[in-house]
Write a structure and sequence with these properties.
- It comes from Pseudomonas tremae.
- This is Short-chain dehydrogenase/reductase SDR.
- One of its GO terms (molecular function) is oxidoreductase activity, acting on the CH-OH group of donors, NAD or NADP as acceptor.
- It contains seven helices and six strands.
- It is of the alpha/beta class and 224 residues long.
- It has a single domain, classed as Rossmann fold.
- The protein has a four-stranded parallel sheet with strand order 3-4-5-6, with helices on both faces. Strands 1-2 form a two-stranded parallel sheet.
- Helix 5 links the parallel strand 4 and strand 5.
- Helix 3 packs parallel to helix 4 and helix 4 packs parallel to helix 5.
- The longest helix has 29 residues.
- The radius of gyration is 17 Å and the shape is globular.
């Protein structure tokens, strides 16, 4: 978030897990560095809640120039484990959450004649790995949605970012013991979140008419 703050933009921060205290701390840190921030917790699986967040941002800042659809969950498991509730959770957060974010800002961006939608996919949206079938399916969907939106509008820039292994809480949602143990090795040498923030800044800072459609960011020497 430091990279985004240094970019000099006003930021609305959201968190599907409603970590309100952490959002407050983040807002305080941004403001201490001279940024302007408003925060509001929301549930990305609820289209009305996402629309309310977008309306809140427009009231506070006047318009929305960029949205970053970043919410995601990753409860990996073999398909044979039949963790259907977890499959549905990934569909709801990872796919519907992105669609709800797009729906909340698309009319306003079209009306103002510009805007940028940045969707966070994954290297799992480029290749499938064992225990990650459903997760990868959701991230392939994010890539497809992003490219479809890019083709449908010439007013809005669309970027999909595919991170490799990044320090995050994604693995905390893994309930399958085998997948959880495998992830410990997988996550060695993970990138810090600022690496992804810098990729966001790079895409946003491009001149009008330049659309960075896809960015893949992974640790140097990573096999994944």
């Amino acid at each position: 978030m430091n990279s985004m703050n240094q970019f000099g933009r006003r930021v609305g921060a959201d968190d599907v897990q409603r970590r309100t205290e952490r959002l407050k701390a983040l807002a305080t840190d941004i403001e201490a560095q001279g940024g302007s921030v408003r925060f509001r917790a929301l549930d990305v699986t609820d289209a009305a809640d996402v629309q309310a967040f977008a309306d809140f941002a427009k009231r506070e800042f006047g318009k929305i120039d960029v949205i970053v659809n970043n919410a995601g969950v990753m409860p990996l498991s073999p398909l044979a484990s039949l963790k259907i509730a977890e499959w549905n959770q990934m569909l709801d957060v990872n796919i519907r959450g992105v669609l709800h974010g797009i729906a909340a800002v698309l009319p306003g961006m079209e009306a103002q004649g510009h805007g940028q939608v940045i969707n966070i996919s994954s290297i799992g949206g480029l290749a499938v790995s064992s225990t990650a079938s459903v997760y990868c399916a959701t991230k392939f969907a994010v890539c497809a949605i992003s490219d479809g939106l890019r083709q449908e509008t010439d007013k809005i820039r669309v970027t999909v970012i595919c991170p490799g292994v990044v320090e995050s809480e994604l693995a905390d949602s893994i309930s399958d013991e085998t997948a959880r143990e495998a992830m410990k090795t997988f996550r060695k040498g993970a990138l810090g979140p600022n690496a992804i923030a810098r990729a966001l800044v790079y895409a946003i800072k491009q001149p009008d008419g330049v659309d960075v459609s896809e960015i893949v960011v992974r640790p140097s020497g990573s096999a994944y």
